[in-house]
Design goal:
It is a single chain. By secondary structure, the protein is of the alpha/beta class. It contains 12 helices and 8 strands. Strands 1, 2, 3, 4, 5, 6, 7 and 8 form an 8-stranded mixed beta sheet that branches. The longest helix has 27 residues, at 256-282. The radius of gyration is 18 Å and the shape is globular.
Length: 283
């Protein structure tokens, strides 16, 4: 039996996840494998590199920096979150990503992206934490309309949350049969059809019809996955951590006080789950 950790995305709602992951690390909780989508990949990789506090640290320091995020970056580079700054300068110079620890940690780490030509999810194992893997984190978190398409080995990719926002079923197929799932939406949440769909159809529909199809059914697939998770939870096949209350920050929130408050909420609520997580993983 292999233990796993499944991390939903949600852009800056991921500050909640960061808080939960930090208290898990502080309490020496680990798993055999982790799979992250979007912010679940870009923030979750710090779980494998064992860098407690790194996610909140650099977000607080650079959330107001126009090189990190903002309309200026979008106009200048095509990426709302500046690719060079976020995926080169930050991990290599400004808040160094611990590649050595990442590689030495036997935990497997997967990032999920969406192949925009086929519309299928891509589950990529990221073993090294190097520039190649960082490109996969970037692909996983590249939101449509505000990000450039990321091309790796001929595959054109965007946000993994388009095709598989909570990849519990795929992780189970990989052999991870005892999974902790960290969600970034409260209990009872139901996704609605994307308000961005008309613009996505206009800008990308002719060239990438499978991507548009994904967006058209995304809310249905997401809600069906939530229903499946609820049934697995009842059968004690998964252990779910979700916010106690709706998260009210914007997906692209830049206010450091709001980011810090959500991180602290993740820490506080995560601590309430620690003993139950330990018991679940040891069953």
């Amino acid at each position: 039996m292999k233990t796993g950790l499944v991390l939903e995305g949600g852009a800056m709602r991921g500050m909640y996840t960061a808080g939960v992951l930090d208290v898990m690390m502080e309490n020496n909780i680990t798993v055999d494998g982790t799979i992250g989508v979007s912010a679940g990949a870009t923030f979750g990789c710090n779980f494998k590199s064992k860098q407690i506090g790194r996610t909140i640290r650099y977000n607080l320091k650079y959330s107001k920096d126009p090189r990190y995020v903002g309309i200026r970056s979008l106009i200048k580079t095509g990426d709302l979150y500046g690719a060079d700054f976020c995926y080169r300068q930050l991990p290599e110079k400004l808040d160094v990503f611990d590649i050595k620890t990442y590689q030495e940690n036997p935990m497997e780490f997967y990032a999920v992206a969406t192949d925009i030509e086929t519309g299928k999810p891509v589950y990529h194992k990221c073993p090294n934490g190097d520039r190649v893997d960082v490109e996969w984190y970037r692909a996983s978190a590249s939101m449509p309309l505000v990000s450039n398409i990321v091309e790796i080995d001929g595959q054109k990719m965007l946000d993994g949350g388009i095709a598989d926002p909570i990849p519990i079923h795929e992780f189970q197929k990989m052999g991870y049969d005892r999974n902790v799932i960290i969600l970034t939406q409260h209990d009872g949440y139901r996704k609605k059809k994307s308000s961005a769909l008309p613009l996505i159809k206009l800008k990308m529909g002719k060239k990438y019809p499978n991507l548009v199809h994904d967006m058209e059914i995304r809310h249905e697939m997401y809600n069906k996955t939530l229903d499946d998770i609820r049934e697995m939870e009842k059968k004690k096949q998964v252990y779910v951590i979700r916010p106690n209350n709706p998260i009210k920050i914007k997906r692209t929130e830049t206010d450091p006080e709001k980011l810090k408050a959500l991180y602290e909420t993740g820490r506080k609520e995560g601590l309430q789950h620690i003993e139950n997580i330990k018991k679940f993983l040891e069953m």
